[in-house]
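Tutorial, part two.
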Amino acid sequence: MALRDGTYLARCKERSALSAAMNGHGPVYPQARCTVVKGQAIFDRDGRELWRCNAAYAEVHFELDRIEVSRDSAGKGA
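Running the prediction step on this input gives:
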């Protein structure tokens, strides 16, 4: 199933910072907000972009829970 456009709370599946770093997910560990737009997953925290990847990759490698973002909180990190 393809990841739909929207905003998600992304949690690394790795259980340690070292493990996440070894898999290239260190900037996202332990969690960050993920915005999916047109097949691109953009991870951010506190309004600062951390990392980007293909949405299909994000769907396989992260635990993603869809969240609702109010206009007031748009641009602020998870």
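Residues 55-61 form the longest helix (7 residues). In part three we will examine how such features are distributed along the chain.
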